Amino acid sequence: MKLLRNVFLVLLLLILSAAGCVFYAFKIEPYRLKTNEYTINKTQSDSTPVKIIQISDLHIKEDFTCKRLEKVVNKVNSQNPDIILFTGDLYDNYAAYSDDENITAALQELKAAHGKIAVWGNRDYGGGASRQYESVMREAGFTLLKNENLSVTLNDQKKILFTGLDDSLLGRPLMPYTAGSDDSDYSILLTHEPDIIDEYMDNNYDLVLSGHSHGGQINIPFLPAVNEKAVETTALSTKYSGGMYHLKEDPDTTLYVNTGIGTTHISARFGVVPEVAVFYVCL
After folding, report:
1. What is the pTM of this model?
2. Distance from first CA to last CA of the chain, Å, rounded?
3. Which pLDDT score, from 0 to 100, does residue 9 have?
4. For the chain, what are the domain ranges?
């Protein structure tokens, strides 16, 4: 009888633990938001580093509306960034849910001393989003790059070259003409899908920023196969699925894959907390 009771208690504990994990994955972690900070080229200069913030993959939808976006805006603005970057996927499915007016107003509240820059993601094309994404981002104060360069001059007259590629799944990415980039003190490539970087190794960018992967959204400790399967559901993000990579093919280039803020496929995250990435770049 005692053994039977112990077995029952163990089973009950397992059921409650599983239920708790499911509740956390759907109702808590997707609405958390953490800041990950990185210092780049810390030995290169004694000057004050430029603070660049990257956000990615908002995936606005019925369970992640402009009200949820306020938390992101407040988190970013509290950092007093020099430059804000958005690496694509504003809506999850524009045909199913859109709120252009309120989303534009929320994104307008993002403040950066030297501007805001965005590129296209695959979700910015689907469901009719391509007709509205550009106008939303431009009205929100972002410079939207599609196979284009943008040089930003800082207060100390140093220059950062930003190159933004079109989306690799539904767009037509093409490296723009880069003459004049030699006078830049630093260069950053923006591309939504990370695995595409292998095609641009010869372009000698200092830093590549991407998103798209969501880190798989599910990363259960001691069960790596679950995360591997989750990552495989997103094309062009299986080789580089999240975090910082120092590329063997080009040791001078660093790739960072932002695991994003929103969710897709299922509205759950477990072990992959939504992130705002902060880069202190020493020039």
Report:
1. 0.94
2. 71
3. 66
4. 32-281
